[in-house]
């Protein structure tokens, strides 16, 4: 399916064919959360199975397969989006529907057998039901907006004007969310710069949104709106500040949000290390779960987090996410500063 999906489009795969389907960023965020929840489900199954006398592969093997399926789905989606061939997303629609139904059945079975919020497996299953349901809703929204599969006249969408100009090589606004967060799209440029000196032609043109004229027009419109809004208000630095906030406030707010998230994740490191030291100091890392339903043990969140290996994995993810948010905050702030200075 991956090969078929990437080669079935009549459009030659080039950076000018990169199009973001509706809900692009939401889909990637939900997929990242899904992968994290599935990792927690795998770990929960391994930890609870470790205290059992016999092995129960069904506690973590399905979660492992779902993890591989989630990775495959996002790779498949990237290929379909790159080639602008949304009809092939019908495979994902089918998969999200089946995953949502099966997880809902599992969740209902847990409720029927008295499993509640005190058991971590119940909470993880509920989260997976919500995530699969939201991914299914995103897929249905793509069908509705792009009008494919069930519609006779699909909606034709052209690439952004920047991507139609082969001289524009700054692709940060147009790549997928993972490439944005890791700046993966710059690898080709970095390799070229490593082999030979670069010039302005190699760097290419600026995107329209980052050009001084574009940002001047944006700032001027905001300033004129301030004058028209309150003609009696004194003009000066206050009006300029209001215009700046109106024109460039959203990206600065986004940068602040990323920084706050990074600072909050900074607390995870000391907490995880403290938990690891505490558990290692006790000399016994084996938990003793008390709840046994349907022949297998169900552990609570507290019992799950008392495992030093689990805390080590959580520490790794927390630090990785912290640095990602911190770098994103720097990038958005620097880019906004460039645009703001160009506008002034």
Automatic annotation (TrEMBL):
<keyword id="KW-0677">Repeat</keyword>
<dbReference type="InterPro" id="IPR050173">
    <property type="entry name" value="ABC_transporter_C-like"/>
</dbReference>
<feature type="transmembrane region" description="Helical">
    <location>
        <begin position="84"/>
        <end position="101"/>
    </location>
</feature>
<feature type="transmembrane region" description="Helical">
    <location>
        <begin position="122"/>
        <end position="143"/>
    </location>
</feature>
<keyword id="KW-0547">Nucleotide-binding</keyword>
<protein>
    <submittedName>
        <fullName>ABCC8 protein</fullName>
    </submittedName>
</protein>
<keyword id="KW-0472">Membrane</keyword>
<comment type="similarity">
    <text>Belongs to the ABC transporter superfamily. ABCC family. Conjugate transporter (TC 3.A.1.208) subfamily.</text>
</comment>
<feature type="transmembrane region" description="Helical">
    <location>
        <begin position="28"/>
        <end position="47"/>
    </location>
</feature>
<keyword id="KW-0067">ATP-binding</keyword>
<keyword id="KW-0812">Transmembrane</keyword>
<keyword id="KW-1133">Transmembrane helix</keyword>
<dbReference type="GO" id="GO:0016020">
    <property type="term" value="C:membrane"/>
</dbReference>
<dbReference type="GO" id="GO:0005524">
    <property type="term" value="F:ATP binding"/>
</dbReference>
<dbReference type="GO" id="GO:0006813">
    <property type="term" value="P:potassium ion transport"/>
</dbReference>
<dbReference type="InterPro" id="IPR000388">
    <property type="entry name" value="ABCC8/9"/>
</dbReference>
<feature type="transmembrane region" description="Helical">
    <location>
        <begin position="59"/>
        <end position="78"/>
    </location>
</feature>
<feature type="transmembrane region" description="Helical">
    <location>
        <begin position="293"/>
        <end position="321"/>
    </location>
</feature>
<keyword id="KW-0325">Glycoprotein</keyword>
<dbReference type="InterPro" id="IPR036640">
    <property type="entry name" value="ABC1_TM_sf"/>
</dbReference>
<dbReference type="GO" id="GO:0008281">
    <property type="term" value="F:sulfonylurea receptor activity"/>
</dbReference>
<dbReference type="GO" id="GO:0042626">
    <property type="term" value="F:ATPase-coupled transmembrane transporter activity"/>
</dbReference>
């Amino acid at each position: 399916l991956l090969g078929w999906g990437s080669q079935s489009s009549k459009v030659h795969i080039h950076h000018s064919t990169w199009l973001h389907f509706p809900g692009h960023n939401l889909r990637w965020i939900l997929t990242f959360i899904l992968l994290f929840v599935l990792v927690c489900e795998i770990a929960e199954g391994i930890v609870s199975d470790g205290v059992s006398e016999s092995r129960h592969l069904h506690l973590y093997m399905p979660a492992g397969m779902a993890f591989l399926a989630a990775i495959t789905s996002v790779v498949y989606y990237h290929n379909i989006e790159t080639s602008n061939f949304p009809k092939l997303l019908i495979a994902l629609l089918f998969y999200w529907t089946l995953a949502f139904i099966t997880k809902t059945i599992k969740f209902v079975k847990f409720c029927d057998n008295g499993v509640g919020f005190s058991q971590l497996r119940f909470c993880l299953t509920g989260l997976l039901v919500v995530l699969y349901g939201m991914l299914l809703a995103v897929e249905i929204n793509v069908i509705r907006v792009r009008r494919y599969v069930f519609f006779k006249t699909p909606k034709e969408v052209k690439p952004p004007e920047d991507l139609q100009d082969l001289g524009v090589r700054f692709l940060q606004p147009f790549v997928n969310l993972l490439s944005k967060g890791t700046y993966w799209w710059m690898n080709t440029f970095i390799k070229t710069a490593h082999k030979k000196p670069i010039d302005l032609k190699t760097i290419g043109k600026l995107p329209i949104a980052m050009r001084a004229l574009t940002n001047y027009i944006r700032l001027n419109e905001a300033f004129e709106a301030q004058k028209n809004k309150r003609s009696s208000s004194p003009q000066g630095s206050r009006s300029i500040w209001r215009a700046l906030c109106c024109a460039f406030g959203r990206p600065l707010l986004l940068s602040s949000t990323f920084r706050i998230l990074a600072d909050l994740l900074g607390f995870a490191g000391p907490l995880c290390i403290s938990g690891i030291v505490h558990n290692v100091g006790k000399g016994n890392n084996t938990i003793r779960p008390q709840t046994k339903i349907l022949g297998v043990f169900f552990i609570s969140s507290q019992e799950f987090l008392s495992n030093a290996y689990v805390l080590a994995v959580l520490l790794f993810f927390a630090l990785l996410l912290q640095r990602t948010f911190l770098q994103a905050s720097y990038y958005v702030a620097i880019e906004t500063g460039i645009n703001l200075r160009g506008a002034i």
